[in-house]
Amino acid sequence: MVAGRKTIHVATPKMKPQQFHLDNNDSVQAVLGYLNFSSGVNDSSFLAHLDNLYRFCGNLRGTTVAAAGGTPLWDTVTTMLASELDRLQLEDDAFGDVAQASLLLTVIRDEILPTYRKYHKDLLYHQDDEMLFNSFFLGRVFECML
User: Fold this and answer.
1) Which of 50, 57, 95, 111 is the most exposed place for a label (fewest CB within 10 A)?
2) Where are the alpha helices (DSSP H) in 13-134?
3) CA 141 → CA 87, 109, 136, distances in Å?
4) Cα–Cα distance between 128 and 131 in angstroms, integer?
5) What is the CA radius of gyration of the chain?
6) Residue 57 near residue 73, CB atoms below 8 Å
7) What residues form DSSP beta bridges with 8?
8) DSSP 3-state assignment of 7?
9) Is 48 helix (H, G, I), strand (E, B) or coil?
10) What span, in angstroms and rounded, lies between the C-alpha atoms of 9 and 12?
11) What's residue 62's pLDDT?
12) How many Å apart are CA 141 and CA 146, to the nearest integer?
C-alpha cells in the first residue's frame, strides 16, 4: 500500500471484487459520518464529498454502465459506502453504532431508487441511471430520508 492512500474493497452484484485506492479517506468518513449522525440538515460539504466519491468510483470503473458490467454508478457508490461502514464500525469507536447509516444505505439502494424509477417510468424512460441518479440527486434523497 502506498503511503497516504486508503484501500477500499468493493464488490457489487455484477462486478468482481476490486481494490480501490483513495488518496485519503476524508470523503468516505465525511459522507458516512453525515449519514450516521445527521438529522438531515442541508450540508454543502456532505454533497461535495459525495460528489468526490462519485467521480472517484466513476473514474475507476469507466464512464459507462456497460464498463461496469451493467452496474449503475449509484449502486457502486452505495455498496462501497456500506462496505466502508462495516470496516469503520470495527476500527473506529465513533462508528460503534452505525444503525442509522446502515439502514439508510440499504433502504435507498434496495427500495427508494428502484421505486422512484418505476413510479416515474412514463416521464423518465429516456433517462439512464447515470444521468438521473447523480451525486446531487442521491445526496438530496439522503437528506430527505434523514
Assistant:
1) 111
2) 26-37, 44-61, 73-91, 99-107, 113-119, 121-124, 129-132
3) 24, 11, 9
4) 6
5) 15
6) yes
7) 20
8) strand
9) helix
10) 10
11) 65
12) 9
Q: Report phi then psi at 9, rounded to 5.
A: -100, 125
Coil, helix or strand for 92?
A: coil
Q: What pLDDT score does 18 carry?
A: 44
Length of the chain in residues, anyone? 146
φ/ψ region of 118 (left if φ > 0, alpha if ψ in -120 to 50, else beta) reads alpha
For the chain, give the longest Cα–Cα distance.
50
Closest CA to 34 of 18, 50, 56: 50
What separation in angstroms does the CA of 73 have from each of 39, 51, 58, 128? 25, 12, 7, 11
- Between CA 56 and CA 63 the distance in angstroms is 11
Place of cell 412514463: 122
Count of CB atoms within 10 A of residue 99's CB? 8
Grid cell for residue 27 = 470523503
Per-residue pLDDT tens digits for 66-122 = 555 678 889 989 999 999 999 999 999 999 999 999 999 999 999 999 999 999 999
